[in-house]
Design a protein that fits this description.
Number of helices: 26
Number of domains: 5
Radius of gyration: 30 Å
Oligomer: single chain
Number of strands: 5
Strand order of the largest sheet: 2-1-5-3-4
Length: 584
Amino acid sequence: MSAQNTESKLKQMLKQEKIQLWNPPFSDESSDAGPQHMEELAERYAPLLRLPLTEVGGALERIRQQAVKRGKERQRFRETSVATLELLLPHSKETKTKSYMETRLDARAQELVDRIGEDFGLKYIKLILNGRTLCVDQPLDQQGVKNHSKVMVLKVSDAEWKLQLSEEEEKEKNQKESLQRTQKGFQILSERDGSEDSSPFLEIADQRGNPLTIPPQEKKALILAMGFHEKGRSLMKKKQFDLALCHLLQADQQFSRCGSALLASVDNFAVLQLDVVWCYRALEALSCLEDGRSRLQRAEDCFLRCYGERQQRLLMIKGNTGREEVLFLRLHLLQSLLSYIEGNDAQARQQLSKVETLYNRLCLDSEKMAQLMSLGFTEREARLGLRACEGDLQEAAIHIGNQRQEREELKQRERKRRSRRMEAISSLSELGFSRRDAARALQHADGDVDRAYGILLDSSGSAQATGCHSEDSVEQLLYLGFQRDVSEAALRLTGGDVQLATQLLLDQQGVLSPELLSESPSSEEPSTSSSTSTADMSTEDSQLVDEALEDIARHEEDYLDLNLEEESELIATMKTYLSPAHSV
């Protein structure tokens, strides 16, 4: 470790002085060192590092040789597309030597597995890159492998090897991992209360963007439901309908935990039902016909409750109904498809007639779209604005401008509200209370600082113990792409065994659950805190939250911004199905 430390310091110093050891005068054309210049560098850096001249000189030479080697490898990669990978083989802890292998990156990972097995006498192995297992049937470059990537070679059991070879089980595993990470990310967000300036948290707002007061348990279920829904919609845009359906069905389960009064006041539940049936259609899952029919009925009933009999409630809230008509277009189109599948051609034609009327109204003039976009409006704004104003160009421009102003005013109000809240939390924390406890007390006190102070007088905090571990072991896990906090936790759980810690992190997808962390030897003393593992989980929490936030649409009406290309294709198909010639 001391050698690595010295080399790291030297690399920083070389970088600051823009010294390139692989170029003259430090390396000649034959890649040999320039002794005089290397010695001068060592003499200059040794006093600064307070290290012996021979140690600094040796470290500089190792850096130079590695730089020359990597330079040659980069040139070879540019010329031949043959990459050099650094392998961390499953040797004993004392073995420090590095192994390298050359390969094309468009080769499947299985080819690399086979070569490593032959060259190093390893039977059952899997390859790990940045804490993720490489899929053997996919090319290396599609899985993030690059020239000079560091790949860990891990031994696996015979049973685990067979599992790895199963394509269906691998797919199922990926789906399960995606679901778990989505749930964990949004669960973290659902439990946050805005007690820290730097921590993103979610709030539920009405159709005007005003925050809603919802009981904590119901709010948690709703955030999880909406989180799974957003992830599902993101996957639908990528045409990954099978994985999208898994997330949408999880969203449906979470919505079932919300009160009926809440579901009756928001259209999210209805949109979810449409999205589920749209996935059924994309996957040609005709076996889901009965479920699809009931979901469309629930969607229609929910739209009726939320928007009103003739959408008068929606008209009062938003001032127009044009943007939401795309939802009814998709609803009637799916109803037409299911009616046709059920053999009810007359009902299918009736629904398709509604669809064509809506489609003709919602199809936009490309010139009007271009004119609005030339004024600086986005494609989404132009499309939604024209639909809201029934195609009137001037009205649409005014409408979009007003929406922008309203959105900015809402942001200003939210900033002021958040600022007042943070000031209140800071005032309470200055009195010795934690920011999290202060935030919760303010929530229970409806923002009243004096009442919150009274609540906090009855509260108590706790401290969390931390454990010790080998820095060398932590460095090995960091080398594999795992985060420091979760690496330290894994080492505590496995008694400092690097191989066991690595396997634990891989099995848990790099996320250690609170249940696992509670078993850590460093957590023997009881704690009254509900966030015992905060220190160990903070980095992983941050990653999960970032993943969750990536799937949240940046525009509140993203679900209404349909270009109707898929709908147009299905309309054409339905017209073909229902034409007299086809019937004959």
